[in-house]
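Justification of resources, computational component.

The compute hours requested in this renewal are based largely on the per-chain cost of generating structure records like the one below. Each record pairs the submitted sequence with a full structure-token output. That output is archived, and it is also reused by downstream analysis tasks.
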Amino acid sequence: MEGKRYLVPARLHRVEQELQRSRFITTVAPAPTVEEAKAFITRVREEFADANHNCWAYVVGPPGSTGMAGMSDDGEPHGTAGRPMLTALLHSGVGDVAVVVTRYFGGTLLGKGGLVRAYTGCVQQALENLPTTERVRKARLRIELEYASVDGVRRMLAAHEAETLSEEYAATVGYQLAIPVTRLEAFQAALLDLTNGQVLLEVLDPEE
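The structure output for this chain reads:
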């Protein structure tokens, strides 16, 4: 389970520039899943349906990860748009990110090298001023403990950045928590110490 914190786009971000009379519009958006990346690409393609090209790339997951990545030249010569765009994303230090570069052809041919430089530069320019936020991978926990431990556990939650999802009071007290994966091991150790081992703890599926 990957516990790393990493930067992701905070919101949709767009920049525009003109190169050799062609108009390039670069749109960047958060893409926490492949489905959301593809839905974003579809929206931009529909918005600029009259453009000559809507080239795209996305990286779902931590920065630099290629397990869930995609790209398209959308009619540009093979390897001149999607691949350089994806390379720029992979080296950006940002994860869960999708980008579409829309091109309105201005009549001047850029050549293969010029296209690679243009599409790379568009993505890099958009990323320079991209508003970002930190994504923290979380796990969901279920704990069950005695009433005597409740006050101590409640004090612990904030220290470990744990969020209470639900509480249940019966013969014992049950909590469902969301906690950063990086804090999980320390929280488990502190919980066992606080309750003298009198606690049931179950790690549920990671929260995306």
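The two ends are 11 Å apart (CA to CA). The chain has five helices and eleven strands.
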